[in-house]
Amino acid sequence: MSLLIKNGRIITADADQVADIFIEGETVKAIGKDLSVKASKEIDASGKLVFPGGIDPHVHLDMPFMGTFSSDNYETGTRAALFGGTTMVIDFILQKQGNSLQAALDEWRGRSNGNCVGDYSFHMAVTDFNDNTKKEIKGLIENEGITSFKTFMAYKGALMIDDRQMIGLMEEVKKCGGLINVHATNGDMIDYLVAKHRAEGKLSPLYHYLSQPEITEAEASERFTDMTFYTGCPGYIVHLTCEGALNAVRNATKRNQKVFVETCIQYLIIDASLYQREDGAKWVMSPPLREKKDQETLWAGINQGLVQVVATDHCPFKWEQKLMGKDDFSKIPNGHPAIENRMELLYSEGVNKGRITLNKYVEVACTNPAKIFGMFPRKGTIAVGSDADIVIFDPGEKHTISAKTHHMNVDYSGYEGWELTGKVKTVLLRGKVAIENNHCKIDRGYGKFIKRNKVADKI
Ligand code: URP
Ligand code: ZN
Ligand code: ZN
Hints:
The chain has 459 residues and is α/β, with parallel strands linked by helices.
């Protein structure tokens, strides 16, 4: 099977050119003006933008969490991602405290194997670091291609590890060539504030927000940054939301330190005023949405190179699941759906509104996740030899987000009624047309587990 994409405006992190792309099998074979090749299928991309497939390195599919499971499974979640121009996701395995990492990997494989439509990988969340866990790190990196290890400084009593475990894990991960990613908020402070608000009968979603003030994130981000400085382990802060936390990373640059930072689309465009609404549970996530001043900081952080990745932390729950916490904010399953919306929201709110350039868009949504997590240049760019994961995008098409038309397995949208400019039209995954004319053309099982290389400490 061969394919020729004609006359598209091809955008990568560092180039912008009108040219043709010739694809044979799963990879790109040639890029150039007026290529004289014969292909079994031709796509005219005149007037369209052509991006590398998006990579969302922070999603939670079919995940057991807070007494329920996130509502998108590997099939619905990766298919919805493709509709939105994301061809690969990195999901999180959660070790059960007291069990091995291998047991967790087996459990996650049981749910994901053969079920993905799009490509995927896993981060391994270490929730119980001990002498046995320590012995498993090398094998995960070298044999399984799982090279990043997630830690939680919050969710006390469930997922949180203490600083002693964190330091031990960092030393081992550094030795084996991996990277630590972290949910950086102060779990003890949050635990105290949640208990205090509950004792005072303050139980609405607003108190979820008020139990996780900015200082809880700034403090933990600084502590994590200090620990990575001390151990020399490459570090990546997931879902960073606010000025205080980004300033911790900024300060670390003064001692020549580099910590990678991911924010998520929601923290750039929606704010904490939503918690005042009757349906505020839709946006109960951790960390919570912040203030307008934090959005300004994050957009600036992207342009300053302090924030390298825009992900989603897609962790959807249906309204009925959110109602588990109707009388108590601490029982609302944390997370919101966005896997399908990230690329179009970031284009519309970022590029179209002049906040970021086209190259920066590709850098934070496609290229940097591939570089940081050990998949570049196979993924994250359009180049000869790379996987033909390609998005053809109409920059002028207007459309409206709605739960009635989205493909995620959730009965509301956190962005209902948002009018966007720019739409994903055609998506290729490893040379196959995955999305065309608003239909998914590939099946469950096409999505491949991508073994990752050792991570980068520089990009
Ligand atoms: O609210 C969130 N973020 N849910 C998913 C788990 C996590 O902390 O990433
Ligand atoms: Zn988190
Ligand atoms: Zn998450």
